[in-house]
């Protein structure tokens, strides 16, 4: 028996002719781009190196053994496999969701960005034991929250995950608004 069809809801089928292949290809492009940039950073920067780009942005080489904002970074090593397992489970769930709802464009786009980011960071975690971060934004107004006003360094995979999360929120707001 089919779930109730609500416009804009993932189970409604949506419009258009997008296929899971499109969304998995986008996720793959995120992974490849993320890994290529990280390969360049690892090849040209030593840990802690900084290149000033603007007054508020640097390219750096940082390693994060934890999750977002270095959560669990000093946990002793077990977090590597826990976080890798969580990322793998999320990736499997997202692939299933993309196959079930490929025509929900914003929903599928958002999931594919999250999938690409999760797999990009999963590769780092398994291969290196840490995630390679390289984007460093800093402003004086951040100083009360972050050391010297530097937002924690992040990478393309993190950016894709964040954009995907924002997309999911927007998709849900659109769905609720139509109801």
Task: Describe the 3D structure.
With 179 residues, the chain is mainly α. The chain has helices at 20-44, 78-100, 105-128, 156-178, and strands spanning 50-52, 57-64, 131-137. The chain has one domain. It is built from four helices and three strands; from the N terminus they run αββααβα. The protein has a three-stranded antiparallel sheet. Helix 1 runs parallel beside helix 3. The chain starts with 19 loop residues before the first helix and ends with a helix.
In short:
The chain is mainly alpha-helical and 179 residues long.
List keywords for this structure.
179 residues, mainly alpha, 4 helices, 10% strand, globular
Largest sheet: 3 strands, antiparallel
Q: What Rg is obtained from the alpha carbons, in whole angstroms?
A: 18 Å
Bin the helical content.
Answer: 40-55%
H/E topology pattern: HEEHHEH
- End-to-end distance, in Å? 22 Å
Mean pLDDT: 85
Q: What is the number of helices?
A: 4
How many structural domains? Answer: 1
Structural class: mainly alpha
How many β-strand stretches? 3
Low-confidence stretches: 1-14, 71-75
């Amino acid at each position: 028996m089919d779930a109730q069809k609500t416009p804009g809801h993932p189970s409604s089928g949506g419009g258009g002719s997008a296929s899971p292949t499109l969304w998995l290809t986008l996720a793959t492009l995120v992974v490849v781009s993320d890994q290529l940039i990280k390969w360049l950073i690892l090849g040209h920067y030593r840990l802690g190196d900084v290149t000033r780009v603007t007054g508020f942005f640097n390219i750096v080489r940082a390693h994060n053994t934890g999750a977002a904002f270095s959560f669990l970074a000093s946990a002793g090593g077990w977090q590597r496999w826990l976080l890798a397992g969580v990322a793998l489970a999320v990736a499997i769930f997202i692939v299933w969701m993309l196959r079930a709802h490929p025509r929900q464009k914003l929903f599928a786009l958002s999931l594919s960005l999250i999938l690409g980011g999760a797999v990009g960071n999963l590769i780092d975690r398994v291969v290196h034991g840490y995630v390679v971060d390289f984007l460093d934004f800093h402003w004086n107004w951040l100083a009360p929250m972050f050391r010297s006003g530097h937002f924690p360094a992040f990478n393309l995979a993190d950016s894709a995950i964040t954009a995907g999360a924002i997309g999911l929120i927007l998709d849900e707001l659109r769905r609720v608004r139509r109801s």
